[in-house]
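RECORD TYPE: inverse folding
INPUT: structure tokens
STRUCTURE:
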């Protein structure tokens, strides 16, 4: 069992960069797939990125809307996953959530929030245009 806690959100201008962190307490962090989701006001929660558990090679997968701008990474020595966000746009404004889950299957199946067992409380990212 892990408990994710997000940090690093804030108010930035369009074109700026921001790095979110997700520290996950608990054991066996490296065995979890770690994902980032976001939810804008009045919209459903949407998938952003996922990084596979470490022994599977740490593969990554991104939504089309962030591919090429965002990078997900993990540091298992710190039980932390990161989301580096570059070239931010106003449409990136949302509450960003970190989630952890175990299980098999292609990373493309991890775009569903139902695959994750543990969620953080979220961190607000606001991008002004």
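DESIGNED SEQUENCE:
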């Amino acid at each position: 069992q892990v408990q994710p806690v997000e940090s690093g959100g804030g108010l930035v201008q369009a074109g700026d960069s921001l790095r979110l962190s997700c520290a996950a307490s608990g054991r066996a962090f490296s065995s979890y797939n770690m994902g980032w989701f976001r939810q804008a006001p009045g919209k459903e929660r949407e998938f952003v990125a996922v990084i596979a558990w470490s022994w599977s090679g740490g593969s990554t997968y991104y939504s089309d809307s962030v591919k090429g701008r965002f990078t997900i990474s993990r540091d298992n020595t710190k039980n932390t996953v990161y989301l580096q966000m570059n070239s931010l746009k106003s449409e990136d404004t949302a509450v960003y959530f970190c989630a952890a889950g175990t299980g098999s299957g292609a990373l493309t199946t991890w775009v569903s929030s139902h695959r994750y067992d543990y969620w953080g409380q979220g961190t607000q990212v606001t991008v002004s245009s």
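NOTES: The longest strand covers residues 18-26.
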